[in-house]
């Protein structure tokens, strides 16, 4: 899935019909008026590590990028080296024997959306063509086409796959049918074999169906012996009002600690490494303030447009889709004070403090854009409004840049610049920390007349692709003269580490199973985020602000460079 999840438009029929996927994984797919199916998946009580054949997507639970795993083993220990470690039978015996064994079921609601296609389901599109019924054998055949050994290359890999596929089943259900959720509950109990039942529901569906699904799951398919948790996929509303209404509705059926609001960027390896980089390295923490940092940039770009999936995107736009959640979450992690501990609540408390300290975003500190069609190298690239799912007169921004400020002691006066866009020249996500100039620099004359902005130190954290961290330093060019050059101290993950980097959804699914909430969004955190962006969005939409056009495949609107210059900043990715 692209970082900026674009979803297809949903018809009114999506409200009732759907397939579920489970075993202990179930999937609800809603898109056609006819009944859908639910399937069930569960893993054997061994280490099972499978993945989709799709590049860079991996899973230690089931087939990542597609179906999810459900274990019918005893409690999960922890993720070790990318593997889901499940206690041996001896450990189970120590815990008290078979009567204390447990199952974990995952029900993914929304099999036809972009997320399911690109992350929850395998990349095999033909799997999604089965809108109504499918036999267990057909399901297993589809699933088997996407599975390979991820890490474990031993001879028994095929045996593990077979063991996994035996636990894949199919069932029929609808989003808002209590009767069908009762049937799901019965099926889960049958496959649980009388063991302690833990259930995780993943809502990858339009927000208008969230409450219906939660109501049915809560009243008819909750676990009576173990825990029941619900993962909610963005968008969490369109503004403060709709977000609060959604939260209140969910809390009518669930407790806050049962709700896991997922932002998959928090599961990215380099984002999770932010606090490690800062708090476990003495050289960085003393520099992490306005005294040494001139500006911080959060840059997100995609090299493709909506490509026929503009129905969802046009209703939200790039500010809601990327900036209000992904980039703001990273900013909060970057700027927070040292938490009391690594406990989820301590970390989220500090993030909320950052968000509540942020100055209201001013319209003059925002630039919006929309990509237009262009021809390059004999290829014609369509504009945003050329997409048949987008209104011809749409003013929805596909690009936005903004300057934000945190009014506290640590960050007073430091501009935090965000930039996000579709149909740009490259695909990337990175954090750039530009440090201040060296006061009274003795070597200014030896820099060959280079712009001071190009000789300052810069820390770059590349979230994707080619994950890495590098620091720009000034260095003497070898030779008899005294000439300075800027060099990189580079940590490229693919070179330094032989292990594959886990996919963000793999990490977050495991965290939800284990009840770890550190990388999920709390309700007051969500409220603070919307409080920051809602006034801006309202002003943009009420004034019908016209986005600046930029060519498909370019670096974005020229206005973004003027915005940076206004705050004495130069974009680091130029």
TrEMBL record:
Protein's UniProt keywords contain NADP? yes
- Which Pfam families does the protein's record reference? G6PD_C, G6PD_N
**Enzyme Commission numbers on file:** 1.1.1.49
Known PROSITE patterns for this protein?
G6P_DEHYDROGENASE
Specify the pathway.
Answer: Carbohydrate degradation; pentose phosphate pathway; D-ribulose 5-phosphate from D-glucose 6-phosphate (oxidative stage): step 1/3
Keywords, ordered alphabetically: Carbohydrate metabolism, Glucose metabolism, NADP, Oxidoreductase
Q: Where is this region: Disordered?
A: 1-24
Catalyses which reaction? D-glucose 6-phosphate + NADP(+) = 6-phospho-D-glucono-1,5-lactone + NADPH + H(+)
Span of domain Glucose-6-phosphate dehydrogenase NAD-binding: 108-273
Give residue ranges for domain Glucose-6-phosphate dehydrogenase C-terminal. Answer: 276-571
> What family is this protein classified in?
Belongs to the glucose-6-phosphate dehydrogenase family.
Give the function comment from the record. Catalyzes the rate-limiting step of the oxidative pentose-phosphate pathway, which represents a route for the dissimilation of carbohydrates besides glycolysis. The main function of this enzyme is to provide reducing power (NADPH) and pentose phosphates for fatty acid and nucleic acid synthesis which are involved in membrane synthesis and cell division.
Instruction: Name it.
Output: Glucose-6-phosphate 1-dehydrogenase
The species this protein belongs to is: Brassica cretica (Mustard)
């Amino acid at each position: 899935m692209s970082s900026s999840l674009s979803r297809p438009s949903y018809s009114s029929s999506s409200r009732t019909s759907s397939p579920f996927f489970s075993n202990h994984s179930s999937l609800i797919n809603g898109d056609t008026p006819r009944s859908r199916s639910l399937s069930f998946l569960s893993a054997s009580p061994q280490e099972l590590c499978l993945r989709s054949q799709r590049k860079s997507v991996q899973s230690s639970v089931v087939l990542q990028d597609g179906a999810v795993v459900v274990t019918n083993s005893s409690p999960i220990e922890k993720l070790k080296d990318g593997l889901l470690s499940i206690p041996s039978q001896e450990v189970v015996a120590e815990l008290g024997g078979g009567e204390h064994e447990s199952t974990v079921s995952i029900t993914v609601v929304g099999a036809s959306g972009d997320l399911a296609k690109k992350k929850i389901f395998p990349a095999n599109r033909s799997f999604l063509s089965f809108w109504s019924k499918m036999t267990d054998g057909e399901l297993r055949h589809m699933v088997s086409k996407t599975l390979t050994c991820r890490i474990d290359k031993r001879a028994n890999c095929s045996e593990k796959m077979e063991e996994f596929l035996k636990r894949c089943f199919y069932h029929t259900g609808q989003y808002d049918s209590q009767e069908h959720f009762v049937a799901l509950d019965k099926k889960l109990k049958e496959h649980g074999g009388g063991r302690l039942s833990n259930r995780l529901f993943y809502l990858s569906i339009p927000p208008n169906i969230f409450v219906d699904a939660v109501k049915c799951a809560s009243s008819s398919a909750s676990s009576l012996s173990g825990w029941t948790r619900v993962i909610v996929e963005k968008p969490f509303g369109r503004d403060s009002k709709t977000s609060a209404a959604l939260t209140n509705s969910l809390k009518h059926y669930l407790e806050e600690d049962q709700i896991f609001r997922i932002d998959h960027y928090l599961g990215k390896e380099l984002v999770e490494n932010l606090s490690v980089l800062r708090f476990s390295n003495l050289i960085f923490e003393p520099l992490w303030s306005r005294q040494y940092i001139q500006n911080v940039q959060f840059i997100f770009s995609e090299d493709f447009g909506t490509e026929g999936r503009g129905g969802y995107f046009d209703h939200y736009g790039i500010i809601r889709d990327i900036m209000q959640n992904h980039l703001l979450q990273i900013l909060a992690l970057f700027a927070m004070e040292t938490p009391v501990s690594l406990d989820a609540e301590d970390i989220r408390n500090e993030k909320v403090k950052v968000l509540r300290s942020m100055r209201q975003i001013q319209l003059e500190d925002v630039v919006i854009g929309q990509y237009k069609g262009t021809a390059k190298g004999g290829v014609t690239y369509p504009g945003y409004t050329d997409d048949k799912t987008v209104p011809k007169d749409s003013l929805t921004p596909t690009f936005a840049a903004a300057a934000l400020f945190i009014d506290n002691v640590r960050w007073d006066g430091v501009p935090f610049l965000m930039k996000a866009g579709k149909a740009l020249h490259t695909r990337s996500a990175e954090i750039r920390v530009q440090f201040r100039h060296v006061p009274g620099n003795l070597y200014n004359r030896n820099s060959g007349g280079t712009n001071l902005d190009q000789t300052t130190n810069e820390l770059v954290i590349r979230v994707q692709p080619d994950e890495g961290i590098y620091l720009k330093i000034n260095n003497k060019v070898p030779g008899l003269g005294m000439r300075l050059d800027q060099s990189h101290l580079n940590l490229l993950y693919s070179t330094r580490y032989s292990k594959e980097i886990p996919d963000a959804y793999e990490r977050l699914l495991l965290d939800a199973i284990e009840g770890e909430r550190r990388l999920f969004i709390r309700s007051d955190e969500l409220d603070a985020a919307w409080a920051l962006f809602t006034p801006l969005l309202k002003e943009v939409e009420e004034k019908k602000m016209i986005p600046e056009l930029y060519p498909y495949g370019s670096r974005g609107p020229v206005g973004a460079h003027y915005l940076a210059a206004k705050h004495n900043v130069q974009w680091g990715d130029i």
